[in-house]
Amino acid sequence: MSDFTGSIAFVTGAAGGIGAETAAILAGAGAAVAVADRNEAGVRAVVARIERSGGRALAIPLDVTDTAAVEDAVAAARRAFGRIDLLVNAAGVYGTGAAETLTDAEIARVMEVNFGGVVRTCRAVLPEMIERRAGSIVNMSSLHALNGQIRAAHYAASKAAVLGWTRSLAREYGAIGIRVNAVAPGPIDTAFWRGSMSEAEYLQARTARVGSIPLGRLGTARDVAETIVFLLGTGAAFITGQVVSIGGGEIM
């Protein structure tokens, strides 16, 4: 793993699951981490976890659909730590429904968080990265962006938009030293994936999904977080504009 000593990271969706694991790994590798999420209690718990392990972190309550709030959050991280070197966009929401029944509001909500949130945070950190001619960004997509998803077309579309944004930024800013990549997780055993399922529903869903995964298990938040951290670090210094599928070999 890369040594992130002296680096400053800004992680959205960091109150739990993949975002929290990413923040913890980065802090353990020496980075100071701005832990951002709309779940204020959650971000404070993650910060406490990092600080108990001797790391540096800042809790930032944040709704990524609010442009002013994103700009204020990035400014707060800069005041606390001096700059932002690394950005991880892990904030996201899921949505279901047959395509013909989806309302404008349902589509807008998913797009505003999953795609709009990525746009807002990138837009807020890029000027500084451009000025310093350095920076690394990892955005959260999904295997659904590559394969589509029944009864979740708006979710798949929002994550596909993230891929277009990622690849475009990689081409636009690569010449000045800014790398932009994405991860596309498949079935990851987190609260996000479980949603509102009962225990019995969860066990049934897990069994059904594991049967289609060559590696024979659901992924973990750690599986995805370690890939994100790799892409942020020096081991991936010649990697940009890429999407890494993390699905245990599942092909849909």
Structural write-up:
The protein has 252 residues and is an alpha/beta fold. It has one domain (8-243): Rossmann fold (3-Layer(aba) Sandwich). 49% of the residues lie in helices and 15% in strands. It is built from nine helices and seven strands. It has helices at residues 17-28, 40-52, 67-81, 104-132, 143-147, 153-173, 191-194, 199-210, 221-232; strands at residues 8-12, 32-37, 56-61, 86-89, 135-140, 178-185, 243-246. It has a seven-stranded parallel β-sheet with strand order 3-2-1-4-5-6-7, with helices on both faces. α2 links the parallel β2 (32-37) and β3 (56-61).
Task: Catalogue the unreliable spans.
Answer: none
Largest sheet: 7 strands, parallel
User: How many individual β-strands?
Assistant: 7
CATH topology: Rossmann fold
Please tell me the CATH architecture by its name: 3-Layer(aba) Sandwich
Topology:
Elements: E1 8-12, H1 17-28, E2 32-37, H2 40-52, E3 56-61, H3 67-81, E4 86-89, H4 104-132, E5 135-140, H5 143-147, H6 153-173, E6 178-185, H7 191-194, H8 199-210, H9 221-232, E7 243-246
Parallel strand pairs: 1-2, 1-4, 2-3, 4-5, 5-6, 6-7
Key phrases:
252 residues, alpha/beta, Rossmann fold, seven-stranded parallel beta sheet, 9 helices, 15% strand
Structure summarized in a few sentences:
The chain contains nine helices and seven strands. By secondary structure, it is an alpha/beta fold. The protein has one domain: NAD(P)-binding Rossmann-like Domain (Rossmann fold, 3-Layer(aba) Sandwich).
